[in-house]
Design goal:
Layout: H1 6-17, H2 25-32, H3 39-45, H4 49-69, H5 73-84, H6 92-124, H7 126-145, H8 150-155, H9 165-181
Helix pairs in contact: 2-9, 4-9, 5-6, 6-7, 7-9
Length: 184
């Protein structure tokens, strides 16, 4: 006769006395979906491997575009400052100060945007959030590509208010994990 612990006996009694609640993936998706206009469609789409491939492809695209332009920024600031100066030479200190100001402005704009974007995601959902994010990214990179003055470089940072891709992707990943891996 095998030795069983008291807790094992109690679990066996509990399993025989009350039927165990089972939840299908679809029921968990419906429960976890939460607010947002397109969350039900998100739950249904999340079951598709193609949807996961698209989401991760967008993550890679977002990260590559953002990270590839960052090393160019200091050189762009220096070039634009030299182009606008009267004698054609700007000190390294002025260039560094302008670059630091540019980064500070962008960080402040993204801070404001992340406060706003949480409400956008709650109200309209992930799909609308992704559309807004990638539209802002395209605008940001387009203005950056035609920049020929420091003022236009600062202006290119304004669409950063809606560049909250990392928040959206973390929300999508959290929901996928909850739908498929959380045992109720």
């Amino acid at each position: 006769m095998p030795v069983t612990t008291r807790s094992a006996k109690k679990r066996a009694q509990d399993n025989t006395s009350t039927p165990k609640a089972t939840h299908t993936v679809a029921q968990r998706q419906h429960t976890i979906a939460g607010a947002g206009a397109d969350d039900a469609s998100f739950s249904n789409a999340a079951t598709s491997p193609a949807a996961l491939f698209i989401v991760y492809g967008l993550v890679v695209l977002y990260a590559l575009c953002y990270q590839l332009q960052k090393p160019i920024e200091p050189f762009l600031v220096d070039k634009l400052l030299n182009a606008t100066s009267t004698d054609g030479s700007v000190s390294m200190q002025d260039s560094a100060k302008t670059y630091a100001n540019l980064k500070s402005v962008f960080s402040f704009i993204q801070m404001i945007g992340s406060l706003i974007f949480g409400g956008v995601l709650d109200k309209w959902g992930v799909r609308v959030g992704l559309i807004i994010n990638f539209t802002a990214c395209a605008t940001f990179y387009y203005i950056l590509s035609i920049t020929d003055t420091i003022a236009l470089l600062y202006l290119s940072r304004i669409p950063g208010v809606a560049m909250a891709g990392e928040y959206i992707f973390s929300l999508i990943n959290t929901r996928i994990i909850l739908v498929y891996y959380v045992v109720e």
